[in-house]
Amino acid sequence: MSGDGFLQLRGVASRYGQTRVLKDIDLSIGKGEFVALLGSSGCGKTTLLRVIAGFIEPSDGQVAVNGRDITRHQPDKRGMALVFQSYALWPHMTVAQNIGYGLRLRGVARDEIARRVSEMAELLGLSGLEERKPANLSGGQRQRVALGRALAIDPEILLLDEPLSNLDARIRLSVRHELRALQKRLGITAVHVTHDREEAMVMADRIVILDGGRIAQQGSPEEVYNRPASSFVAAFMGAENLLELDGVRDGETFVLQPGSAGEGGSVPVAGRALESGAVEARFRPEAARLTDIDTPATEPGARFFGEVMAVSYPGGHWRHAVKVGDREIMADADRAFPPGQPVTVFVPAETLFLFNTPSGDPVSRPGLPSETVKIPA
Ligand SMILES: Nc1ncnc2c1ncn2[C@@H]1O[C@H](COP(=O)(O)OP(=O)(O)OP(=O)(O)O)[C@@H](O)[C@H]1O
C-alpha cells in the first residue's frame, strides 16, 4: 500500500561514518496521511525522520514533496515542523511566546502572531494558560505547547519523534486520540516515529516497520497485524511464540509433520509463499487454546503437546508458560492449568503465521510424542 506520493523517498540511504544506518528506503506518503515509523531501538527511525526534516543529508537517494526535489533544501525551507520527545520548550518564555517563537523567527507581524497564538491555544485546549512558564505546566500541557509551536507555522508536514513517550501512561492514551483527531481535522500529513506498537496501531493510517535500516513491511494496522510478511514482523507485532516445524505442501494445504513438539495439523496455504521444508511457526499467546491433553482438533490449525511450567494472572485471563518440545511458549486460557499438567495447545489456522526458514532444510529434532491431524482446507 502506498500513498499518492505527496511526500516521496526514493532509494534513501544514510550512514554515520562507515556505518550504514538506512538502506534502500522507498516510501510514498499521501497528503493528509498519518504514517507511523515503527521499529526497535537503533533500527534507524529517528535517522529517517531527520533525513525527511533535512537535518541529515542522505548519502544516497532523494526526498521530494509534491513532486519537487528537496533533498538539499534547508530544514526551514521544507514546510515541515518537528516535535520532539523532550518538548524542547524555552523555559524562560511563556506559553504564548513559545507558541509564537517560529513565527517571530520568520518575521511575522506582532498582531498576526498574537492572532495565531490565540488560535493555537484555543485549538489545543491551552486557553487561559498563555502567560504561564513551561515549568508550571503538566507534561501533557507542555507537549501541547510544543505541538502548538509546530503547528503555528502552518506546516504541510508534521514530523513527530516519539512525542508522547515522556507522558505518563494514562495521559498518553488521551493525547494519542487528541493528536490523531487534530491531524485529521487539519488535514496535515504526519510522520510519527515510535517504538510503541499499540501507539502506532491506534494512531496511524499506515505503519512502516523498520528492521536494521530497511523497510521490513508497510501496510494498514490491520494488515501488518494479521498478515505479517516475515517472522521478524510477526514477532514485532506480538506473535512472539516460536516453534520450528517441518511441513509438506499438498496443493493448497500445508501439512505440519509430527515432531518434537508433538505437532500436527494442517492449514490452508491461503496465498502464502510456503514450500515444503522447515518452517518457523509464530503465534500470539491469546491465539493459543489450552485444553486437557488429547482434546481433538475440530477445525484447521495446529496441535502441540506440552507441559505447564508456570501460571500467572495478568488480568482477564490466565497466562501459562508451556514447555513444547525444546521450546517454551506462552498461552492464555480462561481457567488456570496447574504447573506440571500435560496440555494440548491448539492454534487455529488463521492465527498461525508460518514462514519457511531461510535454508529450507528440515529442522532436526529428537523424536517425542507426536500426532498428525490432517483437516481438509
Ligand atoms: N550521530 C551518530 N553517530 C553515529 N552513529 C549514530 C548517530 N546517531 C545514531 N547513530 C546510530 O545509528 C543507528 C540508528 O539510530 P536511530 O537514532 O536512527 O535509531 P532509532 O530507531 O530512532 O532508535 P531509538 O528508538 O533508540 O531512538 C543506531 O545504531 C545508532 O547508534
Automatic annotation (TrEMBL):
Record-linked SUPFAM superfamilies: MOP-like, P-loop containing nucleoside triphosphate hydrolases
PROSITE patterns referenced in this protein's UniProt entry, alphabetically: ABC_TRANSPORTER_1 (PS00211), ABC_TRANSPORTER_2 (PS50893)
Keyword ATP-binding annotated: yes
Lineage top rank: taxon: Bacteria
Residue ranges that the Swiss-Prot or TrEMBL entry lists as coiled coil: none
UniProt-annotated stretches for the region Disordered: 358-377
Domain ABC transporter stretches: 7-237
Family in the record: Belongs to the ABC transporter superfamily.
Protein name as it appears in the record: ABC-type Fe3+/spermidine/putrescine transport system ATPase subunit
Species this chain originates from: Neorhizobium huautlense
